[in-house]
Amino acid sequence: MANVVDIFKSRQRKSDVTEDKDGETLSITPAGRSDLVHVRKCTSCTITVEGVAAKCLIENCSGVTIKFKERLISGTLELYNSVNVAVHVSPNHMLPSVVIDKCSNVDMHFHQANLLDKIYTVGSKDVVIHLDPPYPKEQPLQFPKDLEDSDQCITSYYRGKLITEKMLRAGGGYPTTAREEAEAEQKAKLLEQHVEKMLRGMLSKGGSQPRPVDKPGDKPTDKPTAEKEGDKVEEEASTQGH
Q1: How confident is the model over 205-222, as pLDDT tens digits?
Q2: How many whole angstroms separate alpha carbon 70 and alpha carbon 68?
Q3: What's the pTM?
């Protein structure tokens, strides 16, 4: 996973920076909706973000609690190289993308399960999702047992259960999992079968023999007999005209 600090620097987004605070209770009001809230090198602090911001980066922090009163427009929160961090997401605001890179003892508080989409982790441990009733109160991320330090994972809710899977890179570098790839392939296969069945039905209603549907890599099929006969008639007519 790319260093999130480098990603933010490359985008040159205006930042509201809070740094080198120790044992303080702070309130941050972003100057603009496109700003990045950047909290770094803070220890034992409670920070409340009062307004709307583009996104948030928590970097090199310890014992920090951060509370969002409003939404992050991009829906992205990133935590990098931090320990003992608690994040409280604002009620009724979805946070689709959470990146946790080289962190430990992270507590993510959501009001409901549908406000969370994906959590991307690498080199992290002891990450817990907290939800309000009637959902299970605490749900620790269960990382795969054969995980290497450099392996990236995706955590999401699947059929009502929180699951964590190894990340794969699909075509174009899109992050996915083996399960998601298999499901996508199955859906594509079922769609192909449905379209083929529909085309055959349309052709059969017209009284002509349905032509086999070519699949990628197949050699082109011969024309139906009726089409061959039509071509022959056109060829003969052309010969007679000369």
Answers
A1: 765 555 555 655 665 555
A2: 6
A3: 0.70
